[in-house]
Amino acid sequence: MHRIIAFVLAASPRTGGREEMIEIKSLQSAPHYLSSSVPPQYIKGKEGECLIKAYPPNVLLVEASRTVENVFSSAAFEAKEELLTACHTIVEKRRGSEQLREEYAIAVVDQYKGDPEEFLVHGSQIASFLKSERLPLDPAEVSHTLESQLKYAKDDLVIVDWDGAFVFDPSGDVQSVVELLQLANLQLLQYRVLDSELDRRLARANKLVQGRKRHWLWDRELSKSFEEAIRLRARSIADFDALEREVKLIGDWYSARLYGLATKKFRLSQWRESIKEKLDSLEDIYSIISENFSVTKLHFLEMVQILLFFVLQVGWFVLIVLEFKIFLREI
């Protein structure tokens, strides 16, 4: 039997309204050596063939599945596109972001005997499905795509790519694999969301530095810019730290290897470096504003000191004049 499981993740308004909580299980009966730490997920309901989940506070996942006669046929492409379209439709109804989305499709082959490598005679069709490409692929590209695979038992196999995965399991119990691939897509989306938010915050911070006007006595706009830079910097660091803590390698070694394979395909390390660079840029802007704020404050205090000294001198002058008048009257 063959199945296609498709899902779409999207940034959305705060999900709220928790219902049934989902627990992630170990993928295989392998010894555990890593602690499990997974973001909470909640089933939000069903709509047609679609299962709706939420990753609080602001990520929505819509999942749909369908049995197909032959997952290696062109009909599988059509089924995949129909499922993804259905998922996108529900995401739009739930006010999911149009730009900040991730879609993914998983082909499942089960109830077979023998080695799953026998199915690799359909390598060209598998690679085309994984890359969402109907045109015939070059043999070298097909070979490269099929290399991204992982085995646990003799009779199972998982092939992972950017747009999809092929899962071969004679028992058909692949839900944990699906959930782990969903988590990898979740982290990719969350990195994209934070990267986009950092772009907005950097633009705002640059505007604070370049667009302000100096006042002769006290730069109030600079003071406000400094306060906002502190908030932007603190919020960005907190968001990044929370994201790093939220999804850790899960459960057993097989889970960790599969998750690592997926994150490598999704280039999560590059997204992480991009975010770190933008955090460094935000830190530089913060330092510039902080330095200017300190200099401006010092100038302000110097002006106050000069003014007080001038007032003191005037006071002494007035006192001398008064004493001189009193002296003249006594004469």
Low-confidence stretches: 17-39
Q: Over all CA atoms, what is the radius of gyration?
A: 31 Å
The total number of structural domains is 2
Shape: rod-shaped
Mean of the pLDDT scores? 77
Task: Give the spatial strand order of the biggest sheet.
Answer: 2-3-4-5-1-6-9-8-7
Number of strands: 9
Count helical runs. 7
Residues in helices, as a percent range = 40-55%
Quaternary status: single chain
What portion of residues belong to β-strands? 15-25%
Structure, described:
This protein has 331 residues and is α+β, with helices and mostly antiparallel strands. It is built from 7 helices and 9 strands, in the order βββββαβααβββαααα. It has helices at 74-93, 123-131, 139-146, 175-210, 220-246, 253-265, 268-330, and strands at 2-11, 20-22, 41-47, 50-55, 59-68, 101-109, 149-150, 157-160, 164-168. It has a 9-stranded mixed beta sheet, with helices on both faces. A hairpin with a 2-residue loop joins strand 3 (41-47) and strand 4 (50-55). Helix 2 packs across helix 3, helix 4 (175-210) packs antiparallel against helix 5 and helix 4 (175-210) packs parallel to helix 7 (268-330).
Give a quick precis of the structure.
The protein is an alpha+beta fold. The chain has helices spanning 74-93, 123-131, 139-146, 175-210, 220-246, 253-265, 268-330; strands at residues 2-11, 20-22, 41-47, 50-55, 59-68, 101-109, 149-150, 157-160, 164-168.
